[in-house]
Design goal:
The chain has about 110 residues and is an all-alpha fold. It has helices spanning about 10-20, 20-45, 50-110. The protein has a domain at about 10-80. Helices cover about 90% and strands about 0% of the residues. The two termini are about 35 Å apart.
């Protein structure tokens, strides 16, 4: 059985909070990009086989983190849009059901 739930206030609050985090989430990817640049600068100043290997691994991790951070940012934005739309639709459906049930109840009581 499919069950739907809508707490308008909680949904709106959580959705707004996620939306507000968008700026910070975008900064994560940018910060990692800056880190890559600084790692390159440091490599020009200090080089040894073991440090270079470590740097190479770190670069790989940072690049993967950039992709992941971008994905999190994008999917968080999608979640906000979908949550807002779903909340509006579920609210409208509930309003229609309530109106239909009120009409049915009025006819039953009166009739």
């Amino acid at each position: 059985m499919i069950e739907y739930k809508l707490d308008k206030e909680s949904n709106n609050s959580a959705t707004a909070h996620i939306r507000d985090m968008d700026v910070v989430l975008k900064e994560i990817s940018t910060t990692y990009q800056i880190l890559l640049e600084v790692i390159d600068q440091q490599e020009m100043a200090l080089s040894s086989p073991s440090i270079n290997n470590f740097r190479k691994e770190l670069r790989t991790t940072v690049r993967q983190s950039i992709l992941l951070a971008e994905s999190v940012t994008e999917n968080s934005a999608k979640l906000v849009i979908i949550s807002e739309q779903a909340g509006k639709h579920l609210s409208a459906i509930e309003d229609r059901f309530s109106a239909a049930l009120e009409k049915h109840t009025s006819k039953t009581i009166v009739g």
